[in-house]
TrEMBL record, chains A, B:
SUPFAM superfamilies: lambda repressor-like DNA-binding domains, Periplasmic binding protein-like I. It comes from Streptomyces jeddahensis. One of its GO terms (molecular function) is DNA-binding transcription factor activity. PANTHER family: LACI-RELATED TRANSCRIPTIONAL REPRESSOR (PTHR30146), TRANSCRIPTIONAL REGULATORY PROTEIN (PTHR30146:SF138). This is HTH-type transcriptional repressor CytR. It holds the Pfam family LacI. It comes from the Bacteria.
Length: 335, 335
DNA sequence: CGGACGACGTTATACGTAAAACTTCGATCA
DNA sequence: TGATCGAAGTTTTACGTATAACGTCGTCCG
């Protein structure tokens, strides 16, 4: 037997389908009498009526659904972004569907081939430019998270003040006395990492005696460990501080140090970025920059709702905060 | 200007809307001539036509969308389950929408209030019985992951052979010579943890001299650390091996050990469960049981597709595999 | 006392798609 | 030659909802 429709409820309550729609849609003041409304509500409850969303969406021309595009959900940062976005969405009767972007998922040509993709808008995180183009093709409202503001003219953006985070790291390390730095950078070319690199070199530019080398690596513990090990055994004076683009990279860097018999933080300081669960799971706990991932998701969803309402979206950068733990200390005395 | 509809395409191609539907629906052999079909396809491409899914869903009475209910996406295990499910779904033109179950999300009364919840079926992971009841009320096809098979009579289930995993752990520890065990158990009361406890006590039942104590704790590093510390400083002979329900708990347990000046694995062996990224991030790397999380998601989605097709679903348990790393060793010599 | 109005509904329509039922037209065949 | 058939479409309908447009009746006021 088929699902119960508003027509079934109408029959049970002895009214027309339109009356059911009015009552359940909460738009009946002065249109339906209280006793009748009550009868309708009773019948609906009795029959376990649930409106057919496909029909409603078709009628209203909107779906109250947003698409969240993320690189990978298994990265805790993006899982937290989703959580924040979904909370705000739920408060406004919206749903959030995910699209893990880069080949993470099967043969769908683009996000909009997905069956669930009857969308009101899109929130895109750390988008590559080409994927962005595909999205902008469909003229859906778009909010970009943690992405180059210049890429998407006209689109709302929610950005973290990553440059300030990098500055806080360098201030901290410089104050401890470090001068020789190695930047463990993500090989992923995206705004979120490029801005770190720029902030880092600009922060060290005017420091006398400061040296900065860089090594890039895929975003995994093992890759970072190998890349760091290679860099640390290279000829020349050894850096005293490793500045990592991400906690995951920092964990790999720590593993490399351990392999080489270097103690952290006595022989080598290491910093992360993100403040994932990982950061406090390892020993020593990582000095890192805490990123308010849930807030990013919340602000992203809030911005999308604003855009859909034709309101302007708040465009301030979200502040980030250095968290000093046990992976940083003054550099060892000069040999 | 509104989105282009099949009617627009029809006008551009000089045919009727029905012809467009036939051609694009790939059901036109013998109904439309090849030149006409090509004209329609051209027009569709030209106009960037994308079918309105709300309308299609309404017409067809199905949405090609499944709901995945998980406790928390920030737990890597469930993020991986999602990834697996979404991959299989995409291969079959399905979408997956998430419902983080336990109060994780706003005021939605139940999963089906969610705006995106126009569903063909449900995959529920680690469900509590009451939430399950709410779901079964709607007579949607249901697949249960890692849940008590007795709870959901008639529903398809995808289970891991967790009992075997626990047996592999005890075999390993017993072979190393351990006899005094402390079980760091999750305070969450669900099948997935209950089955571990049962398997553990039954495995130790017939071992002469084996002792088993248990302490329960919330599923977080800090909570586990505190609970473990308390248990290890309790009077009586100290256990030589900690068997943890989850890698997260194991990491907390390691922290407690470190606080108490105990070395792992020399003074104390520790085992985890899941084989998350965490397990190889910490030092020493954890001996743990690898759970094929992606496979769980894949099998869950495959089972749901089978149920929707009226085919029987594969009900075999998924095998799990002990991974021996550096957190286990023979117990210290008796004092 | 007539008509304007409000309360309480109902009827009718549109949203965009898929597909069943129908039309037209030439070719085939007994 | 008249019935039949297949190709190539078109016309029509249904899916379930929200809402605009339309009735009907009693009341109140000028």
């Amino acid at each position: 037997m088929a699902r119960t429709t508003s027509k079934d409820v109408a029959r049970a309550a002895g009214v027309s389908q339109a009356a059911v729609s009015l009552v359940l849609g909460d738009k009946w003041r002065g249109r339906v009498s209280e006793p009748t409304a009550e009868r309708v509500r009773d019948a609906a409850r009795q029959l376990g009526y649930r409106p057919n969303l496909a029909a409603r969406n078709l009628r209203l021309g909107r779906t109250r659904t947003a698409l969240l595009v993320v690189p990978a959900l298994t990265n805790e940062f993006f899982a937290r972004v989703y959580t924040g976005a979904a909370r705000i969405a739920a408060e406004h009767g919206f749903g959030v569907v995910l699209y893990p972007s880069p080949e993470g998922i099967g043969p769908a040509r683009d996000p909009f081939d997905s069956a669930a993709a009857a969308l009101d808008g899109v929130i895109a995180s750390s988008m590559a430019a080409d994927a962005l183009a595909a999205i902008r093709g469909d003229e859906l409202p778009l909010v970009m998270l943690d992405s180059d503001p210049d890429e998407g003219p006209g689109a709302a953006t929610v950005n973290l003040d990553l440059a300030d985070g990098m500055r806080q790291i360098t201030d901290h390390l410089l104050a401890l006395g470090h001068r020789r730095f190695l930047h463990i950078a993500s090989a992923i070319s995206s705004w979120t990492f490029e801005v770190r690199a720029r902030a880092l070199s600009s922060a060290l530019k005017d420091i006398p005696g400061a040296e900065l080398r860089t090594v890039t690596t895929p975003l995994s513990i093992d890759a970072s460990r190998d890349a760091t090990e290679a860099a640390l055994t290279a000829p020349g004076p050894r850096p005293t501080a490793l500045i990592c683009d991400d906690d995951i990279l920092a964990v790999g860097a720590c593993k490399a140090a351990r392999r080489l018999g270097l103690r952290i933080p006595e022989d080598l300081s290491v910093t992360g970025f993100d403040d994932l669960t990982l950061a406090t799971a390892v020993d020593p706990e990582l000095t890192t920059v805490r990123l308010p991932a849930e807030h990013v998701g919340e602000r992203g969803m809030t911005a999308l709702l604003a855009v859909l309402d034709g309101r302007p979206a708040n465009a301030d950068d979200l502040p980030v905060q250095l968290v000093v733990r046990n992976s940083t200390a003054p550099p060892p005395a000069q040999p």
